[in-house]
Structure formats: C-alpha cells, structure tokens
Amino acid sequence: MKQHAGTRALVGMLALALTVGIAVAGCAPAAVDSIRPAAVDDVLPIYADIVVNENLAYGERDGQPLLLDACQPADAAASALNNGPRRAVISVHGGSWRSGDKADPAWRNVCEWLASEGFIAFSVGYSLAPGHPFPAGIDDIRAAISWLRAPEQVEAYGYDPALIGAFGGSAGGNLVSLLATSGAGPWDVGTRVAAVVDLSGPIDLTTAGLDMLPDGFAQRQLDYLGCADYDRCDAAAAASPNHQVDPSDPPQLIVHAEDEYIPAAQGQLMADALRSAGVPVTLETVPGDGHSLELLDDELRGQIVEFLRGALR
C-alpha cells in the first residue's frame, strides 16, 4: 500500500491532452498501442491523500491471478464528497482488447481521480486477446464485480455493495457497456452494476458496424472475437452491447468526439438501443478528434462525477 502526498495536478492537466493519446493504448492505431513518453509519470496528476493498494487478486485464469488496484481517500470522512453512502466504481482500460494495463499512468490517474471525488475506485486488469479471446475479458470483469460484492471487500473498503458503477474507455468502454447489458434484473446483485460511463467504446462488433470503424480495425475485432471471419462468428453479436439491451439495464453516459478514431455513430447505436428499451441514457458528442481518456477535460470530469453520484444512490 502506498500513499501519494502532494499534487502536481496543474502540470498534469496541462500535459494530459498531449500525453494521454500516446499513454493510453485505447483502440488506437497499432503503432501507438504500446508507446508512451518516458516522462509521462512526471506529468500526470498525482492526487493528494489517495491510498493505492496494488495488485489485489480477484480471481485467476490458467493458474495466473487476475489483479486489480484499489484507490480510496486516505481519510474515511472524504466519503462526504459523495453526499451520502460510499460508492464503488471500477475502471476498465482500453487497448483494442489486446494491450493496455490497469496501472498505466493514465489509467492510474483515473483511479486516483475517482477516489479524489470520494468513490472507492478499482482499476481492473483482465485477460487479453488473442491469447484469451472473447468472452475471457468480460468474464474477468464480471468476476471482479463478484469480488467487490463479497462481504470481505465490502467490510474492508466500506462501500455499499448495491452502489457499484463502471467506467471504461475505448475497448474498456465496450466491456463496461456489455457488463451493463449482460443479464437482467436488479442492479444490486450478482454481476450487475447500477451505472456505466463509456468513453469512445466500439459498440456493434457485427458486420453492421464495420462501416463505422477505421481501416484495419475489423481484424482487431476478429482477433478479439476468436473468429477467422465474420461469416461464422456468433461471438460478434454476443460481444456487441447494443444486441444485449433490455429494459432492466442501468443508466449510461456515453461520450465520443465528433471526429475521433471510434466514430460517434457507434455511441449513437448504443443510445438508440437503450432509449428504445426505456433505459436512461445521455449521449455527449464533443468537438475535436480526441479518443477515450483524451476527452477528459475539467467539464467532462465534472459531468461524469455528477452522473455517477446521481445514478449511484
């Protein structure tokens, strides 16, 4: 366990727009997936008085532990920031389902930022394709929710197990949207969640969505789906959140940029499916070509916090 003291938030926020597009694997082009500036750790915000408990095992796959990091305010009284009970939020990194890391500086920043707002945040690592194709990743995310609902974690971190939300970007946005639409019924049991924030998530992984995606992304999807082609790929619909929607699903906040890598039309597909089922949804399209965490300016951070506090109550 470690505690960050002091803050370089101002420097970090000014540099974030320049660095996070490289720091975050997201669903970015192959040349960008695993490259980031050596100095990125020095420019991302470090939030004061946040405790980070790293590499907690929430399950295992192929004999290897599945790990997450927990971020929380050092002072329990900080839960007052939530104007009520303590809530838990998982964050799910991007990387075209094949790369990325829960502890990447940009995603560690997300974990600490959510904790600085009074949430108990959990940055989740999950199995990656092509070695572990669908449904391995979403099964791991569901396992993390089950772990969060166990009495041991609830007691250790002091959150309400009925109030669990999810935040994801790019491939992580797809996964949290699929988490939200998987299954049916109450949001406070099993692997259900009560609110989802999706930044730049690819939504329809079937052939119907291909013309909305950039060149070369179809092969990444096939690798993730474990399919040789789309003609014989039942996993494509199963991995598409808009194909799983029902009226019992939780509210979502979906955000895309106007000219980004994963087009806003993908978010529109999800919003249309949710609205048709009577599920509350907010779709925001912001100017520019930012992708995933690149969208996180002060205004959007405030909107996300307001959404999560309102939905998790």
UniProtKB/TrEMBL annotation:
PANTHER family: AB HYDROLASE SUPERFAMILY PROTEIN C4A8.06C (PTHR48081), ALPHA_BETA HYDROLASE (PTHR48081:SF13)
Pfam families: BD-FAE
Transmembrane segments: none
BD-FAE-like domain: residues covered: 82-274
Record's protein name: Acetyl esterase/lipase
GO molecular function, one term: hydrolase activity
Keyword check for Thylakoid: no
Leader sequence residues: 1-25
